[in-house]
Sequence to fold (82 residues):
Amino acid sequence: MNGQADMIGTLRARLTRGRRDFLTPADIAAALDVSCLTVYGWIQAGDVEALDAGTHGRPAFKVFMPSLLSFLEQRSTRRNRP
Fold:
């Protein structure tokens, strides 16, 4: 297993703790050590699938776990290309 695969495995374990189907941008940001704005950017760009469960015009995104894991795996694959 290479370093990227190890990292994805570690992140998968950290993100799937509690076996939730959805994560908040704050959960993801903390697990991946990125800012919430980065996660919101992924949502806006359509890189990860999310549901806006907000009310009264205030967004409250819930990110679908399979979409996030797929995005992270694709990202690590792109970085490993020669």
